[in-house]
What does this fold into?
Amino acid sequence: MLKLRKYVIVFVVSFLFLEVTSRIIFDRPWVNGRSFDKFTGITLTPGTNGWWTREGRGFVEINSRGMRDNREYEDIPKNSTYRIAIVGDSYVEALQVNVSQTFWRLMESRLNSECNNFNYEKFEVLPFGVSGHGPAQYLLNIKHKISKLNPDLILVIFTPGNDFRNSIESLENDPFRPYLVEISESKKLYEWDLSFRGDTFRSPAILTILQITSKSHILSLSQEVILRIRAAIQSTSRATALNNNNQDKLVNLGDYIIYLPYEKLPEEWKKSRRVVEQIIFQIGNLDQPKQRIIGVIGTNGVQTHPSIKVRNEFTKELGLDNLEEPSNFLKIILQNAGMQSIDLSPELSKSATNNRIGMHGQVPNWGGHWNSKGHLEVAKILSRKVCDLINPVGQQAEKSTHLQ
It folds into this structure.
């Protein structure tokens, strides 16, 4: 018993030494920053913070409402405040950059400094982005969380590619999320699958362990190493699988399959488009004069590659004339749902070509999420569009300053 007590003391002292030392030497990584949510399956854990370094580098803070933001917000904005909510996935979460570099913070700054309006003294932009979320979670977030904060405008950022994959369990292979399931294509019957709510993975014991781990610096570092090793193994496995299936063009395309026209898609990808269409119709039903909802169509790295030659070669490799299929599809269904849309691709592609810098990732591939330049350009586009929306044409001529 005495020996056991000594071992315990040595272990505790050693652990505390490593904990203190790691806090001095290493930046705290942001891990275990996600927790269970009864509506969306997963959300950001309030109060967590740390550095994200797996792609880009950004300091992450999650406020008390589970938003990737370093500010807190009241339920009801002041009467003179125009509140905008941004909902989406990892592009809105924007872990790859610091908060000051995100498109939503830059957008807010530009609106407040350059968009004069007689009715509002202040613009406020609230981010509701969570990595891995898809259209079903955008809808449920709007209904159960965002609407309670009384925004005047909601911008839904759709991501071409994984938004379609996220919407079908057989493609996403993730049981811990809600799905709108197609029951009958001909009758357009759909029902919600919310079975994730009863998953034993969300047991109190596991959640408690995750909370303890998230508080420890050394345990967070250890988990970061494990995650990086696992990601490297998965990447190698995917590459091997693709090489073994090099005769199967559809397998090699991955999420790029969404550039193909509907009639050339495998059945599960066709189904994903139909499901996304139904979800957007439900989002459109929430659009109202006092709470407008606009769909924003995002981009993939290849669409905004600075080299027109690279874009053309990729398009030719797919046997297509252009890369506009997913954007056009989203624009049509947004219009059919009675919603306005903003397509970011044309302006981001033009900016990438003119400035010879990609809007995603880093040289030479320019893939992944929006980089700091991409965030800046998105902020310019959206702030201009929003300013035009709230300023009637007759008032615009009277403004001494207007966004360009």
User: Anything to note?
Assistant: The first strand starts at residue 34 and ends at 37. The chain has 15 helices and eleven strands. The chain has one domain: 26-215+247-391. The CA atoms of residues 75 and 148 lie 7 Å apart.
